[in-house]
Amino acid sequence: MRDHVMSCFGTCVEESTKFYNTPEESKKARLRDKQLTRLLHKYHKEDMKRLKLLLLGTGESGKSTITKQMKIIHINGFDNHERLSKIVDIKRNIRDAILSMAGAMHNLSIPLQDESNQPCLEYVLREASNTEQEITQEFLEKTQQLWSDGGIQECYEQSHRYQLIDCAKYFLDRLDEIRRDDYIPNDQDILRCRAITNSIQHIEFNVPDAGDQVKFSVYDVGGQRGERKKWIQVFDSVVAILFVADASTFDQCLLEDSDKNRLLEALEIFEQVWNNRFLRNVSVLLFINKIDILAEKVLRGRSIQQLNELYPDVFPEYSSFNPSNSAKLEFMESFPGGSDIHKKKGRSASRPDIDPEVVKTAVYIKHLFMKIVKGELKLKETFEPHDKEWHSQHNCEYYYTCAVDTNNVKKVLNGCRTVIIRKHLERFGII
Ligand SMILES: Nc1nc2c(ncn2[C@@H]2O[C@H](COP(=O)(O)OP(=O)(O)OP(=O)(O)O)[C@@H](O)[C@H]2O)c(=O)[nH]1
Ligand SMILES: [Mg+2]
Predict the structure, then answer these.
(1) TM spans, by residue (predicted)?
(2) Measured by CB atoms within 10 angstroms of the end CB, which terminus of the chain is less buried, N or C?
(3) Residue 196 annotated as lining a ligand binding site
């Protein structure tokens, strides 16, 4: 395309020399043409080196968290000013979390374990609903007291029945630290902090690769329904899509639609991205994210079986699903906390710390996404059937991720980088 544009410039100027009055003018025009061509070649080369990546996925799937990890891994992380500016968001997260749980106590008829905490509950409900008000020390103190009540803890266990941000427990457990006057958020606090993305965010960084510097340009968009209409604005010249899917939400409904299962929504959006004609040449890297929360949930007795019961026409039978050993191994190797000694000795199959049901659930979710890739699972009736060749220009690779774990993300990004660069070079006929 660009060569085509360049040759157009060349032909136009050559042709137009006929219309110059003097040889001088014609010479000048030829010089301009040369300079222009050189410039276009230069930009073409620069462009070849800048790889545009796009983070897509439903709301709260972890896109901005991956962007923050890229900042930590590739761009010197966060300075003091940025850290301090996060305190407001962290305190808001605490307020939103305690308000959700206190409200749910009433709706789910869960009583306080210690009745003397009743005034504290009333105070929190009254103060937290005024979102304009500054979050005071007294409020944080009362929140901490309430968080220690067995009733609130019971409510936390039931959080699949209402909307609660994922970082609730993390920040409520850290209130001693957060309440201090000299509190400065650390990297983990920043990664856990939740703020909805409602405008297109962009970061750039260089990564050394095979003796050269490769420039990455990463776009992070909002994933909630109202934000998705903006996605198309950033589709142009994308090299790869990092599609972030929250694997832990099989038992939750959307914040923006209380009738819609979150995992089903993620699968539908993935299907739309995979079959989008504007993205037909774009590699898709699927991040099956929040595997840590998935594991916690399964250990608390939550099962994906219920999704299968709710939508029997969509989801294949879970109870008879029998993943292969290699599929299980793949997940176990990705799960944070695995010791390298096991891997070196070729004993990574033995991860006694991971419950077999956790492995089965994660592999089942991966299987669902891969069925979409293969065209074996069709969720939207409106899709025209594509012929076999339709997807021949792009492919999909998947990774199990825990976006708040820097080591895990670093490993995954290293793997992705190789795939992205190779695909990019193949596309431009360089390899
Ligand atoms: N425990 C855990 N929390 C995660 C993980 N990934 C993301 N989170 C948390 O999930 C919440 C939502 O993450 P975001 O990165 O803001 O999600 P998003 O996809 O950017 O959401 P939108 O901007 O609304 O589209 C944050 O509190 C993150 O810290 C994960 O793998 N494990
Ligand atoms: Mg975001």
Answers:
(1) none
(2) N
(3) yes
* CB 57 within 8 Å of CB 285: no
**Taking the model in full, what pTM does it have?**
0.87
Residue 262 near ligand 1, beta carbon < 6 Å:
no
Say yes or no: CB of residue 151 within 6 Å of ligand 1. no
Coil, helix or strand at residue 297: helix
421 CA distance to ligand 2 middle (Å): 25
| Ligand 1 near 153 CB (within 6 A) | no
For residue 238 and ligand 1, the question of a CB distance below 6 A is answered with no
CA-nearest of 201, 203, 205, 173 to 189 is 173
CATH 1.10.400.10 fits 87-184, yes or no: yes
Q: Is 62 annotated as a binding residue?
A: yes
Count the neighbouring beta carbons within 10 Å of the beta carbon of residue 337.
12
Ligand nearest to the CA of 289: 1
Please give the chain's pLDDT, 431 residues, in tens.
333 333 333 333 344 445 677 888 888 888 888 887 777 666 666 666 688 999 999 999 999 999 999 999 999 899 999 999 999 999 999 999 999 999 999 999 999 999 999 999 999 998 888 888 889 999 999 999 999 999 999 999 999 999 999 999 999 999 999 999 999 999 999 999 999 999 999 999 998 877 778 899 999 999 999 999 999 999 988 999 999 999 999 998 888 888 889 999 999 999 999 999 899 889 999 999 999 999 999 999 999 998 888 888 888 889 999 999 999 999 999 998 865 544 444 444 568 888 999 999 999 999 999 999 998 888 886 666 677 788 888 889 999 999 999 999 999 998 888 888 887 777 666 54
Q: Is the ipTM of this complex over 0.95?
A: yes
